[in-house]
Write a structure and sequence with these properties.
The strands form three sheets. This protein has a five-stranded mixed beta sheet with strand order 6-8-9-11-10. Strands 2-1-4-3 form a four-stranded antiparallel beta sheet, with helices on one face. Strands 5-7 form a two-stranded antiparallel ribbon. Among the domains are: 11-130, no CATH class; 274-327, no CATH class; 332-481, Heat Shock Protein 90. The chain is built from twelve helices and eleven strands. The relative contact order is 0.07. With 496 residues, it is α+β, with helices and mostly antiparallel strands.
């Protein structure tokens, strides 16, 4: 985008005949008629007709160079020289012959007409160039508004280059606060480019943008003919600010909508999914507390096991809800370090029966760059999800090093199950929060396990995606950047 902001239109294209050209035209208007007259009298000994044509040519040259004023000056000065040196009686400005007077008058009128035509042509050419330059500027402004990373600064830079200014700055007048008088409010400087004025009062020129914003310019004043182009800059600034406010409002609305959706989903989970373990805990505890209840040791142990299982299930649901809230609020702080897969597997697989898990090659491969506590939680969610939704199937863990699409060596862990439950056509739907694709109806989860696992993985700079297991089932592929092996290999972080 720097190419857009750094290519400016030549400021001279926005003006008419430059002052240097007009000065040169006046010099030609004064010097050339005298030189031509001397040439015709001393060197050439030309007659009135030849001298008049030469003087007319000099007047046209002056007009072409400097416009109307130099052309008229050259025509009048040449007519006086012709009258004095070439018309009888010579040495005097009196004209006794009417035909000669008419000839000189025609000479002046023709020279003036030529000068006028040249002047009008130069003005129209300047207007055409100005229109073209303004069109190029407006086109560039449109590109800046659409494509620039910082459109406000880019617009200010364009204004500075187009108008030849030393500096341009935006000053914002904050809205009045209740109980605060207007004189106490002060202008606050926003975006700026170049040597900007320290305050609005010290600016060479001030152009209002809206009721709370002004454009402070430092440098030569913008000509009246170019004020429309300056107002086009301010109009684009207004459009950019409105667009930025709209984008901020849309982002805020999107966040609010996500928060509302999350709150609604949490309430649904609390009212539905958490009710089952709470009811189980309540029923088992009430049974144990019944005065007339007579339970032997085995029955009491079974009820206590039920309470513990439901409590663990409830704890997992609450942890997933809290983790999802942290992920959506960008509040996950990962402390990365080298971690070996085998260091986190014991804690991660604690809730899965040991006889249903096979490990292949988890001792091989280098350490990965991860947060040990978060990584343990990710693997636990993947293993528990496989155990819950593929009942009776073996869960296989396979690790190794891979080279990703970018050519980077990464550590990979695959959690493979061979379950027979149906999977969605698009496996990405598995990572949608509060989304479940089974009909077990056991209330064993809130549909957050995989969503939390992916969120925590991305917080560690890794990736997590799903694949179909050949022959049926689901394979979760966890990839993390490989870390250099060495001392300090992370162990699971307690209480994380």
């Amino acid at each position: 985008m720097q190419a857009v902001a750094g290519t400016a239109v030549d400021p001279r294209a926005l003006g008419g005949i430059p002052r240097a050209r007009m000065a040169a035209g006046l010099a030609v208007a004064v010097l050339v008629p005298g030189a031509l007259q001397t040439l015709c009298l001393v060197v050439w000994d030309a007659g009135l007709t030849t001298t008049s044509l030469l003087q007319l040519t000099g007047a046209v040259v002056a007009a072409l160079l400097g416009g109307l004023v130099p052309g008229l000056v050259a025509a009048l000065w040449a007519s006086l020289l012709l009258n004095y040196f070439m018309v009888e009686p010579t040495g005097s400005l009196f004209i006794h012959d009417a035909a000669t007077a008419v000839s000189l008058a025609c000479f002046v009128m023709v020279s003036g007409a030529v000068a006028l035509v040249v002047h009008l042509s130069a003005r129209r050419l300047a207007q055409a160039r100005r229109a073209q330059a303004e069109a190029e500027v407006l086109n560039r402004l449109a590109l800046i508004v659409v494509a620039a990373e910082d459109p406000v600064s880019s617009l200010l830079g364009q204004a500075r280059e187009v108008f030849g200014l030393d500096g341009v700055a935006l000053f914002v007048h904050p809205p009045a606060i209740a109980g605060q008088s207007e004189p106490k409010l002060r202008w606050e400087r926003g975006a700026a480019v170049g040597r900007v004025p320290a305050s609005v009062d010290k600016a060479d020129m001030v152009e209002p943008v809206d009721e709370h914003t002004v454009l402070a310019l430092r440098g030569p004043r913008v000509p009246t003919g170019e004020r429309d182009l300056l107002r086009a800059f301010t109009a684009q600034l207004v459009a950019v600010q409105d667009r930025q406010r709209l984008m901020r409002s849309m982002d805020e609305n999107r966040v609010l909508a996500q928060d509302n959706k999350m709150r609604t989903s949490i309430l649904q989970a609390v009212s539905h999914d958490l009710r089952t373990p709470l009811a189980g805990i309540k029923l088992a505890a009430s049974s144990l507390l019944q005065p007339q209840g007579r339970f032997d040791a085995a029955e009491q142990h079974e009820l206590l096991d039920t309470i513990e299982a439901y409590a663990d299930q409830l704890s997992g649901m609450v942890e997933n809800l809290l983790d999802m809230s942290r992920i959506t609020g960008d509040a996950v702080g990962a402390v990365l370090g080298p971690v070996q897969w085998q260091d986190v597997l014991p804690g991660a697989l604690g809730a899965v029966p040991a006889e249903s898990v096979d490990r292949h090659g988890v001792q091989s491969g280098g350490p990965v760059l991860a947060d040990a506590g978060l990584l343990e939680r990710v693997i636990a969610n993947l293993a528990e999800n496989a155990h819950r939704h593929a009942p009776g199937s073996r869960i296989t863990l396979v690790s190794g090093d891979r080279i990703d699409d970018a050519g980077t060596v990464v550590g990979e862990l695959r959690v493979i199950d061979t379950g027979s439950l149906p999977l969605p056509q698009d496996l990405e739907q598995l990572f949608t929060p509060f989304q479940r694709f089974d009909d077990t109806g056991d209330g064993s989860g809130t549909g957050l396990g995989l969503a939390v696992a992916r969120g925590l993985t991305e917080a560690m700079g890794g990736t997590l995606h799903a694949q179909r297991t050949p022959g049926g089932g689901l394979t979760m592929v966890l990839r993390l950047r490989q870390a250099a092996p060495g001392p300090g290999t992370g162990a699971p972080a307690e209480g994380r």
